[in-house]
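Q: Is it fine to ask for two folds in a single conversation?
A: Yes, each is treated on its own. Send the first.
Q: Here.
A: Result:
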Amino acid sequence: MSRIARRFQALRAEGRGALIPYVEACDPDFETSLALLKAMPEAGADLIEIGMPFSDPSADGPVIQAAALRGLAAGATLAKLFDMVRAFRTDDQETPLILMGYLNPVESYGYERFCADASAAGVDGLIIVDMPPEESGPLERFTKPAGLDMIRLIAPTTTDERLKTVLNHASGFVYYVSITGITGTRSASTEDLRAALPRLRAATDLPVVIGFGIRSPEQARNASRIADGAVVASALLATLAKTLDADNRKTDTTVSSVLSQLRDLATAVRAA
């Protein structure tokens, strides 16, 4: 059983959903992003998404776009991201790690090499935002042997027929994009989420997590009750950005501010 499957099984036994925070690799620098990554489980993260910085993150709003550009300015590469994961795994062998990003850097790195290096470092799953299932065969040839889950995105506009196609290529969990639009710009209502989830539950046995637009502890609590987990990204990155100096360098409050916010989110999710 994979780390992702074990974690969701354990959470089901606890009777609660997962909190899944997001950290952008090398934002605002390698050491700070690694410090955040290492501290997130103790602050309440059940799984963690790591952003792969890319210059044109088309599905992301301004907050994540800015984080990606800061990461690239700090020298982010996939090799450095794998260094982060290896460093994390020296102390934590249980928390699932998911890489989220776009196909261009993966293709440039080489599919086979990418999957082998990601697996060896300790990555558990991939979310490749701009890779439709019909075109994923060349990558999936290597993800399955490497033990990497391919996590698929489902939108409010996904038709029943399309849902079948996407889920046929999904493993790990299903990521429900709760809004039509880019990340961090608005939020779906609790009523909208409650209406959307039964269709997904009927179509798959995989856990379903909700992302895009979850900012507050209340929203995280509600999403984790309705689904199997809540992803919080832009809200944490916005907090990080506010702590940086004029040159986008960390300050004494950068790590502590993000972790404090994460603890508040975790408290709400656990109360659910």
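Q: Second one now.
A: Result:
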Amino acid sequence: MQRPKIICHMMSSVDGRLLTDRWTEPFDGKDKTEFYGVYEDVSRQFNADAWMIGRTTAQQDFETFSFDFEKYPPAKEFKTHIGSRSSATSAIILDPKGKLGYKSNNLNGDNVIVVLGKSVSEEYLAHLRDNGISYLFGGKSGMNLQITLETLYTDFGLKTILLEGGGVINGAFLKEGLIDELSVIIYPGIDGLSCMPAIIDYMGQTDNNPAKNQSLEFLKAEVLNDGMVWLHYKFHTKN
């Protein structure tokens, strides 16, 4: 299968937690938000064609609205649609049920591509088309990652994608052995509370081992501004 290279690129506290509003404050009194630009600076070094997030992350971090996805019956045809492709990079949103509505065709200036399941309505697909938004179908459930990546490669020409969470989406990619590299920016602070969202949160039973037969090769460690640390690894999978 031809697919894009997947780099899981995340920023976390020292204990691997994701909720930035829970992290301890910088010791020198700086505003915590000053640290977030470092993450974007590192992101640009990968020269990726797109970045990918799940619906929950998109809802939290960007201007979207809730679409009444249960109001309409499923569509009858499920074909890839290529909308506006004017931006240099793309924002890929995994939203199997089509819960998010959009006011434009871009997030942070990047054209949106939505990955859907086959339960979405024609009304929702029309909403996406009317806004110039591209979409594709990740199998019946919308979470067939193999189909999703193959379509992004063949139909959209994407060669490198930054996988930027949340942890549940990252966990799903890990379980399928689809992460090629892991890049983590460590913020010098702690959350500390049990069960808070982490950079990789595979949803399974306690006897599941989503990283089985995978190992990490160290590529790089770099101390960044204000005590932040960048760790970079390559994934290897044993057959």
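Q: Anything structural to flag on that second result?
A: Two points. The chain has two domains: 1-49+159-239, 53-156. DSSP finds five helices and twelve strands in the chain.
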